[in-house]
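DATA CLASS: polypeptide
GOAL: derive structure tokens

***
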Amino acid sequence: MKVSIHFYPNVGKASKKDGLIPMYLRVCFNGSKAESRLNEEISYSEFRLWNTTTMRLDIRKAPLNVYLDNLEARFEYFTSDVSSLAEQNAAAIRDYVIEGIPTRVKRMTLMQFVNEYYQKTVVNNVNCAQGTIKNYRRAVNHLHNFLSHTKRQTMMLEELNFEFASDFKNYLVSNNAMIGKIGMTEVSAATVIKKFRTIFTLAVDQDRIRKNPFKQVKIKTKSPKRERLTVEQIKKIVSLDLHFWPHLPTYRDLFLFSIYTGLAYHDANSLTSLNLETKADGNIKLKLHRQKTEVITECFLPLQAIEIIKNYQKIQVAGYDKILPSRSNQKINAQLKKLAELAGIHIPLSTHIARHSFRQLLAEAEIFDVGVIKRMMGQSRNGDVDEVYYSVTEKALLNAKNKLEEFLTQNLDQ
């Protein structure tokens, strides 16, 4: 273990007022370093007498030399215990030299540090949305499984390096039939890697590791452009005769409802009458917090979406009943493949394509107000100047609903 201490006058920090030069201390330990300003300054004339070899002034019995001798004595005392030194870092040694109070650093395994971060910084953070907590938990689970798979459960935090980070990324995107694992897309893996970039940045800040290797991992972060249905393809699905497939109309309705409202699967599946408000003019307003981001989705339902709801139950003012039949996302996506086949659509349909198709319909219906579109789709407006200066009104949402409804009526009706 290499450990050293260095004292030096920091000329770059010299006072512009009186020209005094502050003294600094630097501790180097196992490739990392920690610096701090000392409560001592020297004049320019004293600086000319500074000896870089001895790291002292060439002045006998100079008060500064006595002060530095005391600091170096603390350093030698603290670093003499080799057994406990292994558990320290540069910052802990620096702090002891300056303050004289030992701050022993508890060594942690990689998984202990990650779990502690998750509990303290994510779970207990009242500002973290449930979707964010869920994504962190998923990332932590992937790391746990990787450590178990590679038999590295006892790996120490300070052993973290680029090779490990790269292996983890490859694990995420690779299939492994032996453990029944299906590889992620690079875009999905990027969301996991980003979490660990954040987590291990804290470890760097705490001087527990020298650098964050996850920042060196190259991975695609931009999603490929998703397929979306044209209004002609949507009409084919609407017009399908499903007499010989009596189970398919329900899946078609669930898919079309998301096309008409832009709701993601989890939001549509959890929709209850509490999310709907019938206005005096008969229009029905939908409002909910998206499960993924906690961002508000707000829109008026077009007639086509209301008709689907009526197929299953009457709209109620109160109650906790679900509005639509509950089906798993996997099962819906499987049945959508059959619908696509019957309609002659050569696109692997999924619930997510419905959301993309809704966005396309808004453009074709000449709905271009970005604030309205983001409110209808439950997208964050963080960083958008209009978030502060522009409020989306019910009138604006109603106008958008009328345009969409008219467009759907003109293009989908038999």
